[in-house]
Every structure is written in C-alpha cells, then in structure tokens.
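Appendix B. Chain record.
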Amino acid sequence: MAKLLVSDDLWAAIAPLLLPEPPKPKGGRPRLADRAALTGILFVLKSGLPREMLPAEMGCGAGMSCWRRLRDWHEAEVWTALHRVLLEHLQAAGQIDWRRAALDSASVPAKGDQRMR
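Structure tokens predicted for this chain:
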C-alpha cells in the first residue's frame, strides 16, 4: 500500500478551509472527494509528473480534475489560509525555528505601503 500523502491529522486541519461543493441543479457526475483531489495535487507536485500521468490506481481522479480543484482553491485563497494553519500547527509542535525565517517583500507588504492594501 502506498504511503498516505495527507495524514488524518493534517486532513483535520485542512478540511474546514476548503470550499463547499457547489450545487448541481442538473445533476451530473459525482464530484471527486476533496481529500482525493488534494492527494492528487500533492502527488503531482512531489513527483514532478505531468498531471496527465496521474496514476489511476491512486484513486485521485483525472489530472484535470485535480488541476481544476487546484485552480478553484487558488482563486478562493485556500492556499493562503492553509499556509497560515500549517505554520500555526508547526509552531505549536515546536517545529519552526523562527531565527531561520525570512520575509519576502513580494508576498508581505512593507509597513505603510498603500499599494498592497
């Protein structure tokens, strides 16, 4: 059996941040589960494989399904919220050495910079 890319503890932290399933007034195919989509996204990012080569045996749906979910979560700023939650969990576990941290002005606006607000 393959190693889980998203542990139960990690999933418990991530799940509340994700978008609810949009309504389907005309029915349609069942939506790929969020956890399966996240696993597919992480597998592609970790392995470097093109999304089209996502192994069907993983149960993560098609690569395009994972890409669409990645796009939707990006537009909804889920990744920003997830980054913050993961940092909080790592801090609580004593896994971050803030002496080695750096801020990038491209992602963190400078104090008083009105353009970024």
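Further analysis of this model is presented in Appendix C.
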